Amino acid sequence: MSTDSGTHDAAPGPGGSGEHGGFDEVTILWISEGMSCDGDTVSLTAAGQPAIEDLVLGLVPGLPKVNLYNKVLSPTLGGEEFLAPFRAALRGEVAPFILVIEGSVPNQDIIQGDGYWTSFGNDEVTGEPLTLNWWIDRLAPKAWAVVAAGTCATFGGIHAMAGNPTGSMGLADYLGWEFRSQGGLPIVNVPGCPIQPENFMETLVWVLHHAAGTAPPPPLDHMLRPQWLFGRTVHEGCDRAAYYEQADFAKDYNSPKCQVKVGCWGPVVNCNVPKRGWMSGIGGCPNVGGICIGCTMPGFPDTFMPFMDEPAGGSLSSLLIKPYGAFIRRMRGITNAAVNREPKWRRNEPALTSGYDPYWRA
Q1: In angstroms, how far is CA 339 from the centroid of its own chain?
Q2: Taking the alpha carbons of 243, 246, 252, 256 in that order, is the dihedral positive or negative?
């Protein structure tokens, strides 16, 4: 699948400048050869607001023409045909371009002697595999924007767990948190295991509007996540949050009540999935009876394991809220019972008991 994406810079490059001083055409080079399962690309195909097809076909108003190169979505047979735009970018023949990295970045320096953790194509002269690190080192400094797709790419994820032999890390850990692209942007982190499809597409569209010169840079938090998507906690958007307030906790996973006591980390995890759902507004972990295991967070998964145990602090917070919640639940129960009765004057009797008394009557 081929699409173009635009970049925004003081001096527009080969993509040409649009009416707002941005770019008319941009290329997206997506490398998913990081330590991952390609789940982020698979999740991306479920996006609908907009769909990746809409981006490729130019159906989103105001965006540059987008050329997308992603191995899962590519119509090529692979091999050198697929690698051609990536090699062209190395030679400076593709600009502007957005580099998307999927999967965590292993540490090649810890390997003593021959070998590599993951590769993407071969050296044209020696035939030796080219590591992911080799590509990042050469493409990231040339990219107009760099986007990390999924928790593995943003923070290291599962492959960066304690005890791993690969030394895996997130893209910002590898390039440095102060890294700035050719477009003056920091790395844009869109975490999720995998990415929530609309979250990623919404972020990409914002970056493309910025490339077109029609929007400011996307606002990011201190972990380089889009603020408007990750500025609130799971708990703040959860349908079960009122049960927490009333200290009414689930004891098993079949209950519709708050799941903090059975392992949910929602009160402290930055994620919007309960509000947004997963596909077409449907799903989202707590919405369908699952606990939040913190997959959008920098410490995932180590900080949140073992997943089914009550979170640290959960015992204290639930204990403190218990007397308040019990009182509130009781008071609301009394009021609920009161407002679930019909007024006493609604009776089929000869005398009017509603209190109706026109003042003009003698």
Answers
A1: 42
A2: negative
Of 3-7, 204-208, 323-327, where does mean pLDDT reach its minimum?
A: 3-7
List of residues 6+ apart from 268 with CB closer than 8 A: 233, 235, 311, 313
pLDDT at residue number 219: 98
Q: Are 231 and 169 in contact (CB under 8 A)?
A: no
What span, in angstroms and rounded, lies between the C-alpha atoms of 268 and 296?
Answer: 11
Closest CA to 146 of 103, 99, 208: 99
Q: Which domains does the chain have, with CATH numbers?
A: 25-230 (3.40.50.700), 232-341 (4.10.480.10)
Does residue 85 have a pLDDT over 60?
yes
CB 66 within 8 A of CB 145: no
Given its phi and psi angles, is residue 27 left (phi above 0), alpha (psi -120 to 50 degrees) or beta? beta
Task: Provide the percentage of residues in the chain whose pLDDT is more than 70.
Answer: 94
What's the pLDDT score for residue 20? Answer: 59
Q: Which segments within 74-218 are labelled E, that is strand?
A: 97-102, 119-122, 129-131, 145-149, 188-190
Q: In the prediction, which pLDDT does 19 show?
A: 53
d(C-alpha 233, C-alpha 92), whole Å = 42
Query: pLDDT band at residue 183, thresholds of 50, 70 and 90?
Result: very high
> What's this model's pTM, rounded to 2 decimal places?
0.85
Contact 348, 299 (CB under 8 A): no
Whole-number Å distance between alpha carbons of 164 and 29:
28
